[in-house]
Amino acid sequence: MLHGTYGNPNENWFPSMADELSDFDVVIPTFPTVEGQSLDAWLKVLDETVGSLRSDDIVVGHSMGAGFLIRALEASEPQGGAIKACLLVSGFLTLLGNEAFDPHNASFVTGPCDFELVKQRAGYVRVYHGSDDPYVPEQLGRTIADSLDADFVSIRNGGHLNAEAGFTTFSELRNQIFAIASKT
Question: How many C-beta atoms lie closer than 10 Å to residue 48's C-beta?
Fold first, then answer.
């Protein structure tokens, strides 16, 4: 599971999700944010904590963590072919017009993305987005879903799908992970 800008592994639904997925090898890297935050720095942390993504991985990214996951898949091919699934929560790949976030997110969202390559490496893709996200407009999540030919789930009154919006657990996401994992 990958957190976003200003985030950490102990926020939102990450701790409860890790507990609920105790039968899995759950890794939640701590990325530098906001001091030292860049795409290259996050790629280095991912490499040091997870190594190469593998064909049996189910990877979840929240907020900038979702955009980062797309960039990580673009940057390197997973071992053994496409990962099993890529679950993107409140994600975006553009500047938000928010001075508190844009300078820190710029290296992740600047330049075109090779969505065709990402589709080849991402396995099953599902995008979750709150219908009333105060930070990332729902349309940005829909754009990612359209670009990746992914399923899109709009969560009514979900906000940014974080603790601030009441998401200290995320049963719909957990159930999707179990469903994906049970498929051979």
Answer: 9
Q: Which residue has the tokens 């995320």?
A: 170
- Long-range contacts formed by 33-38: CB under 8 A, 24+ apart: 33/3, 33/4, 33/5, 33/6, 33/7, 33/8, 33/104, 34/5, 34/6, 34/104, 37/5, 37/104, 38/107
pLDDT band at 184 (very low <50, low <70, confident <90, very high): low
Residue 59: give its domain's CATH number. 3.40.50.1820
Q: Please count the structural domains in the chain.
A: 1
The answer to the question of residue 124 being in a domain is yes
Q: pTM of whole model > 0.85?
A: yes
CB 138 within 8 A of CB 129: yes
Q: Does residue 148 sit within a domain?
A: yes
Residue 154 inside a domain? The answer is yes
Query: Which residues touch 107 (CB under 8 Å, ≥6 apart)?
Result: 38, 39, 40
Task: List, for residues 4-63, the tens digit of each pLDDT value.
Answer: 999 999 999 999 999 999 999 999 999 999 999 999 999 999 999 999 999 999 999 999
84 part of a folded domain: yes
